Amino acid sequence: MDTIEKTDIKSLNLQELTEAMIRLGEKPFRARQVYEWMHVKLAAGFSEMSNISETLKEKCRECFAYTFLDVVRIQESKTDGTKKFLFRLADGNLIESVWMKYRHGNSVCVSSQVGCRMGCRFCASTIDGLERSLKASEMLEQVYAITRLTGERVSHVVVMGSGEPMDNFEQTLKFIELLTDEDGLHISQRNVTVSTCGIVPKIRELADKNLQITLAISLHASNNEKRKKLMPIAGTYSMDELLDSCRYYFDKTGRRLTFEYSLVAGVNDTKEDAKELAELLKGMHGHVNLIPVNPIKERDFRESGEQNVRRFKNFLEKNKINVTIRREMGRDIDGACGQLRRSYMGEGRRTEGC
Description:
This protein is α/β, with parallel strands linked by helices. The protein contains eleven helices and 14 strands. It is globular, with a radius of gyration of 21 Å.
């Protein structure tokens, strides 16, 4: 006999939770109490909700699944204090998140999927493919767990960990809704960044939602042919289609975009690449974030030297392109997406003799 899947309570907004409480025969105000315990006090489970009756707690346990992440491993950078967390989900899958301390506040980078199916050549997340997408609650709980573990408030959230957020569109939208809800942590939409490899229809759909988040485009090439070699998605959506969707996003939201560009030695870091990129992004409302590629052992890519990165940046600036070099965080702790998860799983396979 099939078991009925319980409702994921931490993925419900306040209105949905209120309706659920009424169906349980409870007063509507109970929903706000439970919601506050989950999203403000960051309770680890129903048992911590001290102003909720035991009867209601038992009803909740019977009807709802309560997402909570087990901590598997924490790595801390000796150079900048960045912390990387490996979490275990209820089904045994592993995800990773990163906590970074900046002058403007604490930022958390969350994963949106277990693995990824986009196949970008420089990313460790995609090597084993996609296991499954995360629920909104599992994305939220990364922020909540890190807040509990560090004892510090998170002010900025980036959806740039493992996975492609636009490939988990509805749950990513729900995550943003709950994260920025004034009855929850109430993180400003302007302090939320979502990164995508460029699923054009979803960029346009996101634009129509008129959110005030920052959209980051993983560009990584100055022309379509080179991008296809690095990012399979470029075989589905051309550079022209991608940039048209970016213009649409700006027109709809008024929010400037970020163009992520990982510099790979001898692949996309030449003067010709800089020239093509400057021409490509002329008149675009956004800025380029240059990223010295984080080498992963499964690929043979090497990062550009510091002098070459500076030269690339200077050329773009001379051509009136807004550009920054991303501050390198967590290089000494498997800092790139998917590295910690893969190294941990590799240890397990060696232990088991596989």
